[in-house]
């Protein structure tokens, strides 16, 4: 793939999904992470995107659209990266939700896939994730509660003190938690400073914590500790996840489900 073609696909990915990580771009385009970093540096310098720690986002003021035909909506980039693994995790996680449950769905790309599988169910879903809203807004069975706050357009989510304050009034049966990495030490981590307090408040608001983490999250990336695997009741993952890391959850009395 030539340089310009690769860079066009990077910009197209951002316009489809709003943001992307170096790791996901490298996997999708089948090149090294160092190559992606160089591309992002050049694209940022040319004003085609905004470089962030660990990835890139659309420039302020730009909207999420599709490259090419303006009438054709492309599949969101986040769904395109590791989608099969995420679908499997979402399928298995949906089986953990009993009728009449109160469910917290975290920010992330797997939680909207899970929300899709809760359509037609007599459950209450609480979230700050607008992709979850898109999945459930027309469903008359699901009771949908949106958490307010500061809207992050690039990530289609609410964050900030208002979101945390709302979570202090929530009591949920289950939290489906996302992350950007699970370290060999058992630390569940994230790479977004504005999201970490929201995730921690969700953990505090739920009776049970279910971690949704495909094998790509072992070890993944991130330096902000959300919790430990010993704080997680269930991990739903895929076959390539590090078995020694998973044993930390099992040894603490948690359940590990391989989707």
SS element count, helices:
10
Q: How is the biggest beta sheet arranged?
A: 7 strands, parallel
Topology as H/E string? Answer: HEHHEEHHEHEHEEEHEEEHEEEHE
Percentage of residues in strands: 15-25%
Uncertain residue ranges: 65-81
Strand order of the largest sheet: 6-5-4-9-12-14-15
Distance between the termini: 33 Å
- Give the overall pLDDT as a whole number: 87
Helix content: 25-40%
* Number of DSSP-assigned strands: 15
Tell me the overall shape: globular
CA radius of gyration: 18 Å
Structural class: alpha/beta
Tell me what you see in this structure.
This protein has 259 residues and is α/β, with parallel strands linked by helices. Helix content is 36%, strand content 23%. The protein contains 10 helices and 15 strands. The protein has helices at 3-17, 22-29, 33-45, 77-80, 83-94, 111-117, 130-136, 161-167, 196-205, 243-251, and strands spanning 19-21, 50-52, 55-57, 102-105, 124-127, 143-146, 150-152, 157-159, 172-177, 181-182, 187-190, 206-212, 224-228, 234-237, 255-258. The strands form 4 sheets. A 7-stranded parallel beta sheet has the order 6-5-4-9-12-14-15, sandwiched between helices. Helix 2 crosses helix 3 (33-45), helix 5 crosses helix 6 (111-117) and helix 6 (111-117) packs parallel to helix 7. The longest helix has 15 residues, at 3-17. It is globular, with a radius of gyration of 18 Å. The relative contact order is 0.11. Residues 65-81 have low confidence and may be disordered.
Describe this structure in a few short sentences:
This protein is α/β, with parallel strands linked by helices and 259 residues long. Helices cover 36% and strands 23% of the residues. The strands form four sheets. It has a seven-stranded parallel sheet, with helices on both faces. A three-stranded antiparallel sheet has the order 1-3-2.
